[in-house]
Amino acid sequence: MLGQLFVSLAKPPYVAARQAVTGALFERRYGVTTAGARSREELGFSDEDYNRYLPAGLTSLRRILRKGEVGPDDVFADLGSGMGRVVLQAALAYPFRRVVGVELSTELHEIATGNLERNRDRLRVRDVTLVHADVLDFPIPDDLTVVFLYNPFFGEVFRTVVDRLLESVDRAPRELRVIYGNPVEEEVLRATGRFEEVRRLRGMRPGREWSRSNSFRLYRVLPAGTGSR
Fold it and tell me: Where is the DOT1 domain (predicted)?
């Protein structure tokens, strides 16, 4: 009983406080700015399918994707990369061949560019690119093997991106993994019959919606004809 009370009441604020401290240390160590939220209005997004900016937690990537599961032929893309927090984490800690971040907001892209340039010499991955573009104008690379989505878009935009990911895998068969944080459009993935859940991180915050915002799923994309709707 006491253990359940800790998990439901005490642990969430503890986790939030720990993440805040971890974020501050990360920013100080690398001389970057990645924290803080931006509303859709502040970012100038008129299309309601595009979400506000909120950075993923600093422990999320390493907890959902283990370093031993990434090899030198893997290519990583953060679609909706914001200020570049996850791009930096991927390039600092993993042996990816290439890392790409795609961001629609001019303000966030410029901040991410500064963050990246200040840390070029520290990166494990030498080939890191930030693309300032609408994700709908970004051609999915046919060597992409890991996609990161922290709830950057919804609705028709999300469905179009999912379709393009599947088209890429069908065009160039390979293992593709998708990391999806705050999975509000999870049913879109399930409906395709081609996204097999590999791992999940449950949110540790009170309330269903708030808890979901801190949860992540790792999926493996199945070859065409092997899934079930």
Answer: 60-125
The token pair at 62 is 């390493």
pTM of the model: 0.87
Round to whole Å and give the CA distance between 127 and 123: 9
Burial class (CB in 10 A: 0-12, 13-18, 19+), 35: middle
Which parts of the chain sit beneath pLDDT 50? 7, 10, 14-15, 205-211, 229
pLDDT digits (tens, 9 = 90+) for 30-63: 999 999 999 999 999 999 999 999 999 999 999 9
Measure the CA–CA gap between 127 and 99, rounded to whole angstroms: 6
Q: What is the spatial distance between Cα 110 and Cα 122, in angstroms, rounded to a whole number?
A: 20
Q: How far apart are CA 43 and CA 123, in angstroms?
A: 28
Per-residue pLDDT at 209: 45
Under 8 Å CB-to-CB from 122, ≥6 apart: which residues? 30, 92
Q: Topology of 1-221 in CATH?
A: Rossmann fold (3.40.50)
